[in-house]
Every structure is written in C-alpha cells, then in structure tokens.
Specification:
eight-stranded mixed sheet; alpha/beta; single chain; 49% helix; binds guanosine-5'-diphosphate; elongated
C-alpha cells in the first residue's frame, strides 16, 4: 500500500459526510471528527497528539465564519490541512552549522533504522551544498557497519572516513575523529553511532560520552518511518536523555502508515529536518511539512 493511503481514504470519508451541508455546525462535525480521529489512530499517530489535534480542528471548525462559495467540506479540508502543517512544524527546519569549523553532526538511533546509510547520504547532501565533510565510524558493535561506512563514504560519496575498529570506545573514536577533522580542516564532520534493538542505558551512556567530546551543533535522531506508536516514546526518551536538535525520518518510500511523521514534532518539540526515501545515496531531502500534508490529503 502507498504510504498514507489508508490515512488519506480515512480522511476522505470525513469530508464525504459533510456533502450537502450548508455550514459547519457543532452537530454536523461530530461524525466527520470521529472519522478523522479514527484515521489518525489507525495511522499510528500517538494518542495525545491525536487528542490535541482533534480539539484544535473542532474548535476552529465551529468558530469559522461561513465563507461565501466555500462548501463546509472544503472548509474542513482547509482547517485539517493547516493543522497538519502546523503539527509537523510549519516551516522547513534547516540544518544549523557552527560559526567555527568544523560543524559537528551526531547521529543517534536504534539499530537498523538506517543510520549508517543516512551518514553517507548526509555527507553527499552537504557535499552538494559545497561543504567539505568527514565521516566518523562509531558503530563499534557492528564491524559490518564500519566497513559499510568506509565503502559508502570513501568509494561512493568520496569523503574521508575516520575508523578505528571496534575495540576503541566510541567517545575515544569521537575524540580522535574530531582531531582528524580539524587537521583536514573540513567544514562538517558527521558521526555514526551504535544503535541497539531497543533503548538501553549502555547506549544512552555512550551517546552522552560522545556528545560531551564532540559538542555537536546537531544531534539528529534517525527514526524509521515504519516505527508505529512507539515513535513518540522513542523520540521523547532520546530527547530527554541526550537532547536532540531534530530528527531524520528514513524509509519514507516504504508502506509506513505515517504516524511517526506526524508525532515527532508534537511530542519532542524538535522538528524532522530531513527524510530518506530510498536506498540510493541521493535519496535524502529536506522535510517539507506542507508537501507532506498535501500527500496525506491526497
Ligand atoms: P543502521 O543499523 O541504523 O546503521 O541501518 P543501516 O544504515 O545499515 O540500514 C538498514 C537497512 O535499511 C539497509 O538495508 C538499508 O539499505 C536500508 N535503508 C536505509 N535507509 C533506507 C530508506 O530510506 N529506504 C529504504 N527502502 N531502505 C533504507
């Protein structure tokens, strides 16, 4: 199924219930609002986020004056669209760079979400913006991840990769890598880190140590778009534990139901900055809340 397909059709049934109505009233939005609520929950949007969203939309729907020539269903579509954009952060959130070289981007996230892939994609993305980059391979629990990053970084993207094997502590790798980046005078250094299958204290401890060493401008949590309801708890925990500056949503090309895209900003206050929509190195782009809302509304 196409991503958001189910959400889109769930919302359509809400608009359809208003066909033939003259205005939006407290009474005639009850059924459509129930459809919207169900559609969002089925899309794995976190419950508190759904509640707030429904409240905001309902308040506006009954408070909105009748606009000549605009049917009530169209009016509700407009309100939902605006609220969806707002929910996802409104504007595009650009990456932040430090005034002094190098800017440091720390990537965190669970295992398998696409962190290593994103590291290399991000280097290519920044290279295209005219920035010189260096990668640091910090996934010490997966030797294959280190090899993969070296191959992707050096051979495919064409940026240097600092690797120190799996026997060195991540914070030490970070320290050495940062020193190397200074020597090379690169604009941006990106560090890949080790994930786990689930959140655990050892992972958080390592990330805190690495963060202390790197003093990064960006700490980006890589989130798999397929993560359902758990996305809210995941983002909250990482934000509370290590402090994130934003998220990168991966695997948007899959048939995820979309909940993560809609929950991240609201639960953490931190925006999705970039999205990955494929396995190719070029498949990384800024996150546009308005375009995403457009896709959801079909
Ligand atoms: P890590 O454990 O977080 O470092 O995850 P990896 O970078 O090794 O990625 C895990 C798998 O997901 C690999 O098979 C990647 O090719 C795949 N992957 C990563 N990003 C995307 C994406 O945006 N779309 C798709 N379809 N696959 C992706």
């Amino acid at each position: 199924a196409e991503m958001f397909g189910q959400l889109t059709s769930g919302l359509e049934s809400a608009w359809n219930k208003l066909k033939g109505e003259e205005v939006l009233t407290k009474e005639n939005i009850v059924e459509p609002m129930r459809d919207i609520r169900r559609a969002l929950l089925e899309a794995d949007v976190s419950l508190p986020v759904v509640r707030r969203f429904i409240q905001d939309v309902s308040d506006q729907a009954v408070g909105t004056a009748l606009i000549r020539g605009v049917r009530p269903d169209q009016q509700l579509v407009k309100i939902v669209s605006d609220e969806l954009v707002k929910l996802m952060g409104g504007e595009v959130s650009e990456l932040v760079f430090s005034k002094t070289k190098p800017s440091v981007i720390l990537l965190a996230g669970l295992q398998g979400v696409g962190k290593t892939t994103v590291s290399a994609k991000l280097a290519l993305y920044l290279k295209k913006l005219g920035k010189s980059c260096m990668l640091i391979a910090g996934d010490v629990y997966r030797p294959a991840a280190i090899d993969q990053l070296v191959i992707l970084g050096e051979r495919v993207v064409g940026v240097p990769v600092y690797a120190a094997g799996t026997d060195v502590k991540p914070a030490e790798i970070a320290r050495q890598g940062l020193a190397e980046a200074r020597k090379k005078n690169v604009d941006v250094v990106i560090m890949d880190t080790a994930g786990r299958l689930q959140i655990d204290t050892a992972m958080m401890g390592e990330l805190k140590d690495v963060k202390k060493v790197l003093n990064p401008t960006e700490v980006l949590l890589v989130v798999d778009a397929m993560t359902g309801q758990e996305a809210a708890a995941l983002v909250t925990t990482f934000n509370v534990e290590i402090g994130i500056t934003g998220a990168i949503l991966t695997k948007l090309d899959g048939d995820s139901r979309g909940g993560a895209a809609l929950s991240v900003k609201e639960v953490s206050g931190k925006p999705i900055k970039l999205v990955g929509r494929g396995e190719r190195m070029e498949d990384l782009e800024p996150f546009y809340p308005d375009r995403m809302a457009g896709r959801i509304l079909g």
